[in-house]
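Exercise 7 asks you to align residues with tokens for two separate proteins.
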Amino acid sequence: MFKKRLTISFIIVTILCTMSACSLFDQTFDQIDETGEAPSNSTPEQEGNKSEPNPDPEQDEQAILIPEDSLQKKDKGDQVIKLQTVFNHMGYELTVNGEFDDATAWAVTDFQLQSDLLLASGIYDESTKTVLKDAIENNVPITAGSGLPQKVEPAFTDSGTEVIANPYDQLALINKEHALPADYIPEDLVFPNVRFPFTEDLPKKQMREAAAKSLEKLFAAADEAGLELFAQSGYRSYERQDAIFTSNSLEHGEETANTFSARPGESEHQSGLTMDITSPKVNFDLITDFGDTDEGKWIEENSAKYGFIIRFPEGKEEITKYQYEPWHLRFVGEKAAKEIMSQEITLEEYLETVE
């Protein structure tokens, strides 16, 4: 009798459970929307607390991709956009316009000055890429402007020439309209291993490291060509240039002196990127006849391969404001030098500063 009652009870319970389950299924089915998706069991409050999915999961990664190409002033395009984006990720505030402008050159220079492993040049090169990648991967703190302030009060020399804000820039324009700060002394001056017509280790033997290494390569190539090049005058301090210009002005008059001698601050020699060269064929003098020698002709044809230009070329006096100087080499790097020399233009024209 107990077993019979138990069986009947079990049947009744089973029927009730089945009916309940069917009712629940019907309710759920009725609530499915037109998209075919079942409603969430979460409350409106819970829905509001859900984090929005990232529409582009690679966005953060892409924002800090390191440009592979070497970059410098006048470059444009996607690689420059990457570079500007990377620096903004690190705390800079660059306009991401795809143009390697003065602000971008400042950011690169500022970053380089904060690393003991880099030479400050304003050029995004292989060494800078390596250090930048390491800084990002290891969260190395970088403070924008701590190496080189971006915003400075306008400054002028005693003669009224505007002082440039980034004297480290390898492509800095230094002329009668753009001067170096009076207190600027390159921090990476070295003695290039080349011939000089004198033996004393004078300051004028020095150049900035990158320029000095390139000058050594240029001299080695000239040696292989059977030529005799000698370096004559490289780095020159602001004070030394002041003394030279004063002496030339007293002898020739200031206006005439300024056609072949720069006022203090306006001389490329202070940048450490310049070397005057000569040869025994002109008695080691710095004269225009050097351009007619085998050495002078070779320099005109080959200097760009090593990153140098003839800074004051013949026929460009109206632009440079200086006489023809075939002996005056300025280091700008291979990329810029090849373009300048192949087009027979000046640094002013290359940087598009001539109206």
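Second protein for Exercise 7:
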Amino acid sequence: MFIYSNPVARNMNTAIILGPLGQSSTELPFYSYRVPAGFPSPAQDHMEQALSLDELLDIHAPHMYLVRAIGSSMIQAGIFDGDILVVSRGRTAAHNDIVIAAVNGETCVKRLSKQGESVVLLSENTKFPPRYIMEGDELMIWGVVVASLRRHAVHG
């Protein structure tokens, strides 16, 4: 965990921690057939193998947890309001990683930038300014975002 420190708070709540991610033994059929954006018709003879979401998303519980993204500050990174983020606590955050961070106790999802001696949390939307971590700010990196999930249809 990366830590910095300062008592000035900003409203940056852009992530809600949902909880730890458990292993799944569910396997789904994986089709080698590439689906065009038109009308798909994958046939049984195109099935390549069974694939688990754990394998597909490279999930290694218990070092993984889920977060729901809030707002539009990361849309240019493909993270939209309501998306579920898969976060790894086992990976060390590096320059340019998308991270779950807490700045002075306020959680957020941002791109981590190390500019010389400075640490900056960047939004992926030009409407949101960068958040420079100042001396005395408390910055805790809670994990690195490794995948995102989005529902395209909601069933009643």
